[in-house]
Amino acid sequence: MLKPLAFRIRPYHLSEILGQNDLVGPNGFLTNSINENMPVSFILFGPPGTGKTTIAEAYAHDIKIPYLKINAVTSNKKDLEDAIKEAKTQGQILLIIDEVHRLNKDKQDILLPYVEDGSIILIGATTSNPYISINKAIRSRTHLLEVKKLNNNDLITGLTRAIESNNGLNNKIKLNDEILTYIANRSNGDFRFALNFLDIIYLTFKNKDITLDDVKSINKISNIQMDRDEDDHYNAVSALQKSIRGSDVNAALYYLARLCLANDLDSISRRLMVIAYEDVGLANPNACMRTKLAIDAANQLGFPEARIPLANAVIDLALSPKSRSAIDSLDSAMSLASDKPLDVLDYLKYTPVNTLDIDKYPYDRPDLWIKMQYLPELIKYYEFYKPNNSGQYEKILNDNYNKIKQIKRSSNLRELKTKK
Fold first, then answer.
1. Using CA atoms, how far apart are residues 213 and 135, in angstroms rounded to an integer?
2. How do residues 123-164 score in pLDDT, each as one tens digit?
3. How many other CB atoms sit within 10 Å of the CB of residue 338?
4. In terms of C-beta density within 10 A (0-12 exposed, 13-18 middle, 19 or more buried), how is residue 220 classed?
5. CB 322 within 8 A of CB 247
6. Which of 175, 195, 186, 169 is nearest to 225 (CA)?
């Protein structure tokens, strides 16, 4: 049975790898490692389909060290013990671990001393950010190497090679430059996706002259990399918020579209609520309420109709005036509260002890409430609230704030109560 195209044309040497010149080019880091015969442990991280596992195996072939390959999800303690036995027998082995970020601490502890002394050369592959997902002990013993998305020229070169290769399609189909460019655009830097697309084209149209319309008819969905547990997902969510914060409605709609294509209503709902209150806030509080209503409607509708109220909310938020006065003011207060956890004034305590009635909080004197001091004595002049006149509503609040600031506050309740 014929194996998948992506497997059949997989490069055997680093010199055959597409792109990644800083790693595998003539003066690339891994090329220099091989030329100097200095094997190194490293973690390859980047999007799916960019060649991480291929680079790992090609490095093993070129460095000429026996290698084993395991998956951190499916491997067990015995697999690692077998690798250690092999390293002791061979003197040195190269261990390739897919999904290395899922290697639990017990398994890491088994490997660490052997990676430390060089008897095991560790190569990990992951789509996750290693600075977040990889244990510090592993990071400190390996080089972190980013594998980037392939550009369209690299993808077209690889597709042409796959069509012409004896192990590939052996020139059984012909695709013009326009079709190759279309496939590259749809692949979003993922060569595996491009090769799978090519396989479908071959199986569907191998006995005819293939046109661009033929190709478009079998695939209308781009390769949107949006696994909810991967970096691309978090990047799109982050870009959505930053675009709204920067009042770029077109960019905001683009990133919303990417999240909608991934059907990730939970993340969209949560992020829009955060944006509404963090970035728009007091500048347009009605937009905050409208966002909540739009999210409720979207969750009731579900996709694909959910996109309609979500689009309304994103446009509303992007084009609203912005104010971070609420969150910035609270963060300032939280910072000081963390550094100075001062005692609450006695008359503000829930049950003040050994306090005369004349010195207790005056529940029956609302006329005094605005004249009382509420901050602890040491910080009584601190102003955490930073006014921001971004919207009409916030201007009204700030006018009231400035009037209130003119009132002299006192912590001497006895004097306030008896003053005429």
1. 49
2. 999 887 787 777 788 888 889 998 888 888 999 999 999 999
3. 8
4. exposed
5. yes
6. 186
